[in-house]
Amino acid sequence: MTSEWCGWRDATERALYGAEDGFYTRPGGPGPAGHFRTSVHASSLYAGAVAALLLRVDAALGHPEELALVDVGAGRGELLTGVLAALPAAVAARVRPFAVERAARPEGLDPRIGWLGELPAAGSVTGLLFANEWLDNVPVDVVETGADGVARRVLVRADGAERLGDPVGGADAEWLRRWWAPPLEAGDAPWPVGDPGLRAEIGRPRDEAWARAVGSLRAGLAVAADYAHERGDRPLFGTLTGFRDGREVRPVPDGSCDITAHVALDACAGPSARRTTQRAALRALGVDGRRPPLTLASADPAAYVRALGAAGSAAELIDPAGLGGFGWLLEPVGGRCAALLEEWDG
């Protein structure tokens, strides 16, 4: 453990992705499923919905000979495995699946799935790029207003101790002014000047990461699904936190826990993007959570039990107070998928 002071962005990078002891990259680690429950792990209905979206993209693109499915932040490949199983065989035969993940390829993964340590090259793939809970793990710096009301970079040690550093300036200060200005009274100055104790995360690295992800598409649709907040409702004290063994914990950048912060998806969004909630998106893709009719219980009890279980799983995915409240950012590349979003009924 180092006693070096640095910003949260550098500390998180080392803690999550260090070659030997990173939370996500250490050899033999359990992956995200060992520490928190994502939509992918909650129900196979999620993979089914992504498969349905891929079919829409395929149709919009005119059923290309090769259809890419890029899963960014793929964990252990669970989403890709589920989507391939949910697709019609004729479509699955044309799909070229890629997992983008900085951890090593897990043993036993479907050999059809390509494993990449970084995003595909710019303009190199055609199809659907899907990033489920990826952007919240792109490391960011944290700032806090000091006693003088000036926003300063928060410095941290590997044991989690913090102190305030230099004032924020340049592009980071401009990002705060544009995207994280707190509610203002008449005559108040926007960030990076404000009441002492206010905190924020500088989302500029995520904007850049998302732009690179979208840019990897020659044509198709890019989707990010994540914890999110809007400019008009940013949390006053930030959202940086940790997770370990399924529980929220204090973020300590020593490799022992996940370190995450909610995403300013509105800042990430390009001019052609559309934002919605996971609840609306999944309902548009056929996940509705309605209970089966009671008449089915007497006509076919086994089918009723299966349908009831599916309804419960669907309800978890679209619960507006839980997973259903996640933000979805949908960004088309090329005119055909732009038209697809025009028809989106979510």
Number of helices: 12
Mean pLDDT: 88
Distance between the termini: 48 Å
Strand content: 15-25%
Widest sheet: strand ordering: 4-3-2-5-10-15-14
Biggest sheet layout: 7 strands, mixed
Give the assembly state of these chains. Answer: single chain
Overall form: globular
Number of strands: 15
Record keyword descriptors for this entry:
5-stranded antiparallel beta sheet; 346 residues; alpha/beta; 12 helices
Summarize the topology:
Blueprint: E1 6-7, H1 8-17, H2 39-42, H3 44-60, E2 67-72, H4 78-86, H5 89-92, E3 95-100, E4 114-116, E5 125-132, E6 142-145, E7 151-156, E8 162-167, H6 170-179, E9 199-201, H7 204-215, E10 217-226, E11 241-244, E12 247-249, E13 258-260, H8 265-268, E14 274-277, H9 278-284, H10 295-299, H11 301-318, E15 327-333, H12 335-342
Parallel strand pairs: 2-3, 2-5, 3-4, 5-10
Antiparallel strand pairs: 1-7, 6-7, 6-9, 7-8, 10-15, 11-12, 11-13, 14-15
Helix pairs in contact: 3-4
What does this structure look like?
With 346 residues, this protein is an alpha/beta fold. 31% of the residues lie in helices and 22% in strands. The chain has 12 helices and 15 strands. The strands form 3 sheets. Strands 4-3-2-5-10-15-14 form a 7-stranded mixed sheet. Strands 1, 6, 7, 8 and 9 form a 5-stranded antiparallel sheet that branches. The chain has a 3-stranded antiparallel sheet with strand order 12-11-13. The longest helix has 18 residues, at 301-318. The mean pLDDT is 88.
